[in-house]
Specification:
This protein has 155 residues and is α+β, with helices and mostly antiparallel strands. It is built from five helices and six strands; from the N terminus they run H-E-H-H-E-H-E-E-E-E-H. Helix content is 28%, strand content 21%.
Length: 155
């Protein structure tokens, strides 16, 4: 990723929080290590954006489509429009605002909850403190591989 960042590249990564193959703690663990390795949340987001799609499974569903992701990446690379959120078309009558992690979408209190326009992006400078707490079990040593593993040194 240092090479990608150094070359001015951009990357969008998505995850469905109902992924039946990769458990959520694996992604939270990775994102915390990535933020630490790349110089913090803000610096990482200059070239790397991560989106968690509610109710999506492994590689799709709930509005997590290749078109949504690819169009956001093209707009970012070619037009300099860094996506703070994506819009997921869940079904013909429901859209969802999917915010760049660790930001969250919050209902504004009026209008249909099926319309992403009635949600606003709540920014967070770091991950949710409850997820960072040791008892949450989502950080180093509690990911898919037990122990403190550096991916560059795995057998």
């Amino acid at each position: 990723l240092h090479t990608l960042e150094g070359s001015g590249g951009k990357m969008i990564v998505s995850y469905g929080n109902l992924d039946q193959i990769i458990p959520p703690n694996g992604h939270y663990n990775y994102m915390q290590r990535l933020f630490a390795k790349m110089g913090g949340v803000s610096r990482t987001q200059d070239f790397y954006r991560y989106y968690v799609f509610p109710n999506a499974t492994h590689c799709g569903g709930a509005g997590m489509t290749n078109d949504v992701l690819f169009n956001a990446l093209v707009s970012w690379v070619e037009n300099g429009v860094a996506p703070d959120h994506l819009i997921a078309q869940v079904n013909p009558t429901r859209t969802r605002k999917v915010c760049m992690y660790p930001n969250t979408a919050v209902y504004g209190g009026s209008g249909s909850t099926d319309d992403e326009a009635n949600f606003y992006r709540q920014p967070h400078a770091q991950d949710e403190p409850a997820l960072l707490a040791e008892e949450a079990g989502l950080l180093q040593g509690e990911g898919p591989l037990k122990g403190n593993h550096d991916i560059g040194n795995l057998p």
